[in-house]
Design a protein that fits this description.
Largest sheet: 3 strands, antiparallel
Structural class: alpha+beta
Number of helices: 2
Order of helices and strands: EEEEEHH
Helix content: 25-40%
Number of strands: 5
Radius of gyration: 27 Å
Distance between the termini: 50 Å
Strand content: 15-25%
């Protein structure tokens, strides 16, 4: 799993791309960095909100380091895999499937009425 809230778009560590949620509010616009709810501003215009948020992000990340970390997912099997194919050799399984199909047709007929 990789955490990339702010993505480096070039090899330069000074240029980052981030997503902004802009919401129209009663008295103006609210701009929030997606995934960072404490990076949020409220302004009278959309442009002003984006400008103010850009300044906030620049100030906030001026003296920080953004580090990407990875973690390996566990190798455990899906809990339902032990049941996959358990009825493949059962001679009654085709009958069960045909009964399910007939019941679905009944339900579809009831819905159409």
């Amino acid at each position: 799993m990789t955490n990339d809230l702010l993505k480096n778009t070039t090899n330069s560590p000074s240029i980052f791309k981030y997503s902004v949620l802009v919401e129209v509010k009663e008295d103006g616009y609210q701009a929030t960095v997606w995934g960072l709810p404490d990076c949020q501003v409220f302004s009278a215009t959309r442009e002003e909100a984006l400008k103010n948020l850009h300044e906030l992000v620049n100030t906030r990340f001026q003296n920080v380091e953004i580090v990407n970390q990875e973690i390996e997912a566990s190798k455990s099997d899906h809990p339902w895999m032990k049941f996959a194919g358990m009825y493949k050799d059962n001679p009654l399984f085709e009958d069960v499937l045909s009964n399910i199909e007939a019941y679905r047709r009944e339900l579809d007929a009831e819905i159409d009425i």
